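Progress against Task 2.4 (sequence-to-structure conversion) is shown through the following example record, which the project officer requested during the mid-term review.
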Amino acid sequence: MPNFKEDIKIIFLLIKKDIKESLKNRTALMIIMLPLFASLMFSLVSSQQLVRNFELAVSGPESEELVSFINSNFKNFKIEKYPNIKAGKEATAAGSIDAAINYDPDPENIEDRYQIYLDSRDTINFFILKENISQLLSSYHNLNSGPQFNFNSASEVKVSSSILPVWLTVTITMIGLMLISASLSEEKDNKTLAALLVTKANIYQVIIAKSLFAWILVLITSTLMGALNGVLVIGFNRLLSAFIIISAASFVFSGLGLIISLFSKSQSSSRSISTVIYFPIIFPALVADVSPLTQRLALFFPTHYLYQALDKVLVYEGGNRNLSLELAVLILFALIFYLIILIYTRKADSLVE
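Structure tokens generated for the chain above:
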């Protein structure tokens, strides 16, 4: 028990040291402040993402002909039949589909025959969907200039919160991949690590302290970004899910950052490696919906699972919140990275050369 208390005390002191050093580190401040500033700016403007094929729910009596027409003439729409518009609206709000249309043949005016709900999390896609569906329905009714159909948002989603998963993914990746790798590499260059290892601290305590330092930094930054974008009122269960996902991701990328620093000979080489691999790691996750190729490619990157999980928790409401796959993959990546660290750190001499 005394040894356990002493270990906790040493880890706490190492975390305190890292916090003090980060306040003097311009790179650390830049990594934290840049995403915060960008997040604040994006709370005022809309995001501009690439458009993918759309999934459309169709319901209502005598809607089979409409479904057949869309399948024959509009290849960018994947149609699903729903029993009623309520189910389609809920699926759209949950992020399972992009839009829901209910057709009622009874009203005299064409525009009154349709109830249309769109996924409004992406402002650009909202208007593209609106234009595409207007064109689709005008073609279906053989109209040169279509009527003014009534488009509704399936749920109220602020643009600032819709872009938040992107910025959180970018920030968490940067903190682990660049800040933590640079921190340990700097200590290796300055012989600080060698000095620490001749005291009561051991390499495992240093690794734990670095990982917890990254976790604390990620939580603080994520909380600030969430507050700026107004998502701290989404409910306890969703906030708890976000906390678990963000925590798991923090250990994934701090583990990867530690691997980079352990295998690097100097701080400059560590920084170069982090910079080189940063964009290949982050890019597939953010453009996964562009094509089938990017969708398959993204499956090999932890950033994809982090982004998908945050999108489900922070943006969408309703039933599309099964996070078991994303959480399991993030935990698997973390275990793999820390297993590599454990195996490598058994050669303690290589850490202080």
